[in-house]
Amino acid sequence: MSPGKMLQPVLKMKVDELFLCWLSQPATQLALKDCLRRIKNEEKTEISNGNSGHGKNEIFANKNSNSKRCLLGDTKSPLVSFSPQLSTALPLATPASSRNISSARPTRRSSGTRVVQTKKEETLPPSLSQNIPTFYFPRGCPKEKVNIDAVIAKIERTFSEFPNERATIEDMGKVAKACECPLYWKGPLFYCAGGERTGYVSVHKFVAMWRKVLQTCYDDAAKFVHLLMNPGCNYLVQEDFIPFLQDVVNSHPGLSFLKEAAEFHSRYITTVIQRIFYTVNRSWSGKITCNELRKSNFLQNVALLEEEADINQLTDYFSYEHFYVIYCKFWELDTDHDLYIDRKDLARHNDHAISNRMIERIFSGAVTRGRKAQKDGKISYADFVWFLISEEDKKTPTSIEYWFRCMDLDGDGALSMYELEYFYEEQCQKLDNMAIEPLPFEDCLCQMLDLVKPQCEGKITLHDLKRCKLTNVFFDTFFNIEKYLDHEQKDQFSMLRDGEGENQEVSDWEKYAAEEYDILVAEEAASEQWNDGYEAELNPVDHQKANVLKYQMEKRPFFEMPSHLADVDLDEYDYEEDFE
């Protein structure tokens, strides 16, 4: 064979080889002999019985005998004599033709076609998919015993108590209870039935709407998404939560002090929406699906709104104190008060604790939303909510993903040694400026690898960090100089104890928010005493004074806000372009 010629397999030779191998097997020979014996016996039966038998085996025998006669050249016996028998036995797509057949060739072709059709019918496997029970329920698993008519009758009785059987937003609490829903579903129920257009909901429109919901949605998550989503969607975007949260602000007793400060409604609503997506939207898609809502604790917190009069006890999403802390921190950085901050503004957070290289990554678009703000080199208040929660609690899944995205410079899904060294270089420079001898990178790297214990040598994946119990120590080592020094001063065993206390009820974010809120209250008390001409030495703030500072914003304008910012809402953040 010439050097340039390549070997090519010959399919026919391989098929012949396999056929001969199959034909030489004893089991194959026994099966063929048995088939020939049955064909001969059935052929005799067919000739003796005439047209009386129309079974599948008899038809198969006739076709084989017909073929044998043709191959042996038996032209004395008419081939057409078998055609009526075949036409009677085979259920064809068209009725048997009564045309005259002039030659044996068409008959033989017709017989061949019928043999193929018969074999197809015999070899069709039974449908197995009918035996597999349904296991995917995107709108919840259907419940067997749900009396929709009884629920509708209860709703109709509730509407009969209202004038002209029309319910306003104030009446929707009773309707929500009739629907067996939590109290603060009343807003979504009202708006889904078209109440925002007329100011009321008639019994007929509401019954039609709720009957459709009961027939298509089988759990609370699917019902809640259906009530809030835009037509044609099966997910929730950030703007979908605004009517629901506005109703919470207007009607919850723990937010009654906020009614007169309407300019801060949008700020509080924006904060709650960002916290919802921070916790619930695990896919980072900007769209909350039924499955994500089902796996979260958000609906449980919505139900607790009815039971808990103190809104600050609902620390996962609705706490006003947490909003107060976040907004105060943002306001300190936003010097021009346009609700956007740039790199220099963010660098001043916590006395320049965050490294400049990390700030550049935050503004690169790795974790921020809104291309307009990124183009101008700024981030919005909504982005700052994500930043502050991630900065103060680096143990949650979302915060780990947040900082992992920032440190993954090449976006390959793993942190290489080069990327770790890139961020650690600035930490060393800061330590040198503070007259502190930094730890060599090789030694720091050994410590971090022992801390994380990555599965693959030479890189750290997101899965590795989520398994680690001290991710806050890992991240602070590379971009937060203040917290890095705090960790260095702590005993290693104490850090391990803190890391093992994962089941503690109070998270790092909740601790930070509580401490900062107390500081802000004390600063406000000191400011008021100074302005009133009191002594510089502060007296303890009594309980009544603390409550006033805590809940009554009208006594403190919160911040001197330009009037043209009073109507800022979520539309200015350009969420439509997120994560395309």
Output the strand order for the largest sheet.
Answer: 1-2
What class do helices, strands and sheet pairing give? mainly alpha
* Helix fraction bin: 55-70%
What is the CATH first-level class name of the domain at 320-490? Mainly Alpha
- Mean pLDDT metric: 78
Assembly state: single chain
Shape: flat
- What fraction strand? under 5%
Number of strands: 8
Distance between the termini: 57 Å
Biggest pleated-sheet summary? 2 strands, antiparallel
CATH architecture of the domain at 320-490: Orthogonal Bundle
* Radius of gyration, taken over Cα atoms and rounded to an integer in Å: 38 Å
CATH superfamily of the domain at 320-490: EF-hand
Give the count of helical stretches: 29
Domain EF-hand: 395-430
Organism: Merops nubicus (Northern carmine bee-eater)
Biased composition (Polar residues): 95-116
GO molecular function: calcium ion binding; protein phosphatase regulator activity
